[in-house]
Sequence to fold (210 residues):
Amino acid sequence: MKWNRKATATATRARVFCASMADVLEDRDDLRPHRERLWRLIAETPALDWLLLTKRPVGYRTMLPPALLALPNVWPGVTVECADYTWRLDHLVKLPAAGPRWVSYEPALAPVDFTPWLPAVSWIIVGGESGSQARPFDLAWARQTIAQCRAAGAAPFVKQMGIRTMEDGQWFPVKDIHDLSLWPADLRIREYPINPATVAPELTSTPEGS
Fold:
C-alpha cells in the first residue's frame, strides 16, 4: 500500500514481482486465504503492475477472479525452461488478459522457439541457473531469444548468466552472474513491454519469503 501511495503521489509506477520464490497458483488448501488477500491487494493498488508467474497456467482461469485478469496492471506469466513446457504458452496466449503476457525462460535449460506465441507474449526474461547443482546455460539460447523478440516486436530481458555458462562449445568464465559489465555486450539487454496503461517504471521485487 505504501508503494501504491508513493507511485500515485509521484505519477510513476512500480512493477512488483509477486511471490518471486514461489508459485502464485500452487493449488494447496492452506494457500487459499493468502491468495484471496493477494487478490484484494492487487485490486487496491492500481498504480502497481503485478507480475504473476506460474508453472500451472490453468490456475489463471480457475483461481484468478476474471475481473482481476481484466485489469491492465495484472501481468500473467508462465515459466518455460525448455520446449517440453511450451504447452504453458498455449494456455497463456488464450487468456483474456488486459496486461502484457510474459515468459520466464529461466533457468533456460535448452533452446526454445518462442516464435509461434509472439507477439501475443510481449516479454521474455531469459537467464541461466544459479546454485551448486546448476545445469549448463548456453549463451546461444539467449541470443536466439533476443533475435526472436526483435523479429516479433517483443521485449527481451536478460536477467543473469548461469553459474555454468557456455559459449561456442567452451565454458564462459563467470565471475558474477548478475554483473552486466562482465557479460558480452550484445547480451546487456533489459527491456520492458509497452503497456499503454503504464509508464516505464523500475522493477520492484518483494523480499524472499514474503
User: Anything to note?
Assistant: The chain has six helices and ten strands.
